[in-house]
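Hi there,

I know you've been waiting on this one. I reran it after we fixed the sequence typo, so this is the corrected version. Both the input and the resulting structure follow.
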Amino acid sequence: MDRFKFLSEKYILTAMALVLLLCGILWEYIPSGGIRFLLLTSGILIFLLAARWDRRQKKRQSDFANEICDTVDALMNGCDPENYQPYEDSQVSKVQGKLLQYYDRMQEGKRQSEQDKQMIQELVSDISHQVKTPIANIRMFTDILQKHPLSDEKRTEFLATMTAQINKLDFLMQSLIKMSRLETGTFTLHMEECSLYNTIAQAVNGVWARADQKRIRIDVDCSSHETVKHDAKWTSEAVGNILDNAVKYTPEGGSISIRVRPWQFYTRVDITDTGIGIAAGHYNDVFQRFYRAQEAAAEEGVGLGLYLARGIITRQKGYISVKSKVGEGTTFSVFLLR
C-alpha cells in the first residue's frame, strides 16, 4: 500500500508540474492578475510538496537499508531466523525472505561441511587402526629375522606370517581404493542387459577355493538364460563380497545356496549360508564401514565387504536386505532392477 501511495503522489505532482509549465508558457496570454497570483502560489506549493516528497523518499530508502543491514547483522551474530520471518507484502519483507533463504542454504552447507569433516576424521582413525597391527607385526618379524639366528623352519614360518600381513595390507588398500571410488562417484557403471548366471558364476569362482578348503558346498539355482540390466563387473564384486562373508563365517562342512527368482520389477538373488548368524539388532550395522561384530573378530577382514556391496547395488537402483538366526545361518537378498 505504501508503494502505491508513493506512486500516486509522484503522478499527482508530475501532472500539476506539467499544468504549471503549460501555464508558464501561456503566461503572457493570461490577463487576470488573480489567476497569475494563483498560479504563482500553486507553483510554490508544488515545489514545497516535491521537496517534502523527496525527503520522504530518501528517509524510506534509508529506513529500508537500515532494516536490511539490521537483518544481516542479526543473522551473522547467530540470531534466530524465526524472528525475521516476513509477515507482510513489502519490499523489505521480500528482501528479508531472500536473505533468509540464502542464510538457510549457507547453514546447510556449513552442516554438510562439518559432517564431511567428521567423516574424514573417522575414516582416518579407522584406517590408522586397521593399518597399525599388520605394520607392527611386519616390523617385529623383520627385526627378529635381522638380529636373531633362526632355523630354516622358523625363518620360513616368520616369512609366511609376514607375507600374510603384507597381503592383508594390500587387501585393505584395494578395499579403500574401491570405497573411495564408490563414495566420490569416480567409478563408472556400464549398465547393460546381460547374463546374471555368468555374473554369479564369476563371483562364485572367487570364493570356490576357500570354500573347498573348508568343505563348504555351494549350490546355485539360476537359469542360464536369466538376464537383467546390470554392471557385470561391479555386481560380481558385490555378490562376491557377500559370498566371501558367507564362506568366512560358515563352519567346516556347511553349505551356501544361491537362488535367483525374477519378480515383477526386480530380480531377487538370495544368498543363504549355514553360518554363525547375525543378531537382529545388528542387521543395519553389518553394512556400516569397518563394522566387525565381536563374534567375528577372530576372522580375517576389515569390515568393508558388505559396505561396498550395498553401495554398488544401491547405485544400480537396487537394494540389499538381510534375515538371520543366530547359530543357524543368514540370508542376504540382492534385488536388481529388471
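Quick highlight: The first strand starts at residue 192 and ends at 195.

Best,
R. S.
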